[in-house]
Specification:
By secondary structure, the chain is α/β, with parallel strands linked by helices. It has 2 domains: about 10-100 and about 220-275, Rossmann fold (3-Layer(aba) Sandwich); about 105-220, Rossmann fold, CATH 3.40.50. Helices cover about 45% and strands about 15% of the residues. The chain is built from 13 helices and 10 strands. The strands form 2 sheets. The chain has a 6-stranded parallel beta sheet, sandwiched between helices. A 4-stranded parallel beta sheet has the order 6-5-7-8, with helices on both faces. Helix 1 crosses helix 11. The longest helix has 17 residues, at about 50-65. The relative contact order is 0.19. It binds D-glutamic acid (DGL). D-glutamic acid binds next to helix 3.
Amino acid sequence: MTASNQPIGVFDSGYGGLTVLKEIVDLLPQYDFVYLGDNARTPYGTRSFDVVYEYTLEAVKRLFDEGCHLVILACNTASAKALRNIQQKDLPVIAPNKRVLGVIRPSVEEVAKMTKNGHVGVVATSGTVASESYPIELEKWSNGRVKQTTQMACPMWVPIVENNVMNTAGADYFVQDNLQSLFQKDPSIDSLILGCTHYPLLIDSIRKYIPRQEVNIIEQGKIVAQKLYEYLARHPEMESNCSKHSTRKYLTTEDPHFFEARAAQFLGYDIQADKIEL
Ligand code: DGL
């Protein structure tokens, strides 16, 4: 693949990253994108650090093989558990000119601007919560604006989305239960990060059960899209390598027909997917 013929890769454990891809494509329609969903091995959120790292690295290498020179981990769990190792340990050895970016830092910078009282809530997978990535990054990058970060692991939310049972009584039960527990821990939360890219697909239930309607709900898609736009403007050497034919390619480790049907629901248009092995 020639230098100026390189798509941007977007990776998630499953469908969740499509919420990010949708916003990226809206903002940057001219670029070419390859989306990879590891649907056969989702969810990642309940897996160990080593396993998430191994799976994510396999996916990143596969996107490099597709010609991508820039890969967005549109998955908080992978960003929390694999990004640092990949950036610091793997890239210098396997692909020193390629870049891998995550979704946690952009979200942290945004919430730091948004909160008025410094009380931030994070709902995320068990893996992201256990990694403590959000409290650590908020402490580091919020210039003291975030005073208290309260997290809640929501292990059922990804399976609800992957199994397409949003907007059911079962989904409502888990959303209500987890939000109630979070706001019991800190009733003053004024900004809530949806720290998993699957969660915007549960936004109707989240809005229904958030105890105070004035709480800011931070969805990552638009934020990550804007940060990618700024990144490309700051890095002309990366931008000039991006191919711009508005093509989209979708890869999944599961049945491509399942993926096509579900992705069409999430994206609002039909797509064609190919099955790959990692
Ligand atoms: N979309 C992934 C995230 O943002 C979900 C992880 C999972 O597969 O559990 O964390």
